[in-house]
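Re-run with default settings, no changes from the original entry. Doing this only to confirm the output is reproducible before filing.
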Amino acid sequence: MPRFDVTAIGEVMLRYSVPVGHRLERAQELAIHPGGAEANMLGSLSALGRKTAWISGLPNNPLGRIITNHLHLSGVSSEGVVWFEEGRVGTYYLEFATPPRATQVYYDRADSCAARLTAAQIDWDLVLDTQLLHQTGITPALSPNCLALTQEALERAKAAGVATSFDVNYRGKLWSPQQAADVLKPMMQDIDLLFCGQGDAELLFGCRGTHEEILQQMVDLSHAKTVVVSIGDRGVVAWHNDQIYQAPGIPVQIVDRLGAGDAMAGGIIHGWLEGDLVRGLEYGMALAAICLSIHGDVVITTKEEVESLLAGETRTLNR
């Protein structure tokens, strides 16, 4: 058996946020939470007992070590990290808000160590010693280096017979819909497990219609073996072995919106690895709900808590 269940290459940034009701421009204090789509997803898998590894570039300074320290707390291996003696981590600043104001995100991520990472620096033996390699559409948008790295990772995985998953995860502040579509369409071809939000499917690939029709269009577009389309708080729809499956969202009082989609992907991957996609969809919905109920991008939970939620054993007070 491979050493890891899932490996992933990507960037983790430091998130600086102010509480609801505070303005960033008047901030006296900032809460720090490391976060990145790939690492967030790996953290949710580790919470379920999976062996995971995150690969990236970080500066060899306290800011880089904050990130690996948080990964270790989540049970994610960082031994594939490439350490740079000079450079920076990307950051983003978050101003939470309630209606009528919208939550605002401000990025400062240009020329991070992760964006400077090249394929030649990667320990490919470690990356491919896995059941599944996961990538997202965020990484290729970071830099030409990262685009080439993502392409090579997928090519190497397919050549080695390693299964691949891919989350479209469009970021409008990194590139245009047309740019993203042109780059991501080839990457999505024949992926074993493809994730895409309904909004991204409509914006990037022109998919239209009901949830099921959009799902089928993504299947036809990608030729992926399994396709999952998230539909917000209504849950997910999935296509697998010529059948369509659906799992509803779980009602939740939202504390922090970020990272829920990554937690969902982790739960679905967990079920997929067990050969039970339907159970994976349920795990994904439970992990997303738990993530929405806590601060930070990475879900902090246990397999027992997830299964208790799925069994309907939730209480307002456990003692």
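The longest helix spans residues 144-160. The chain has a mean pLDDT of 95.
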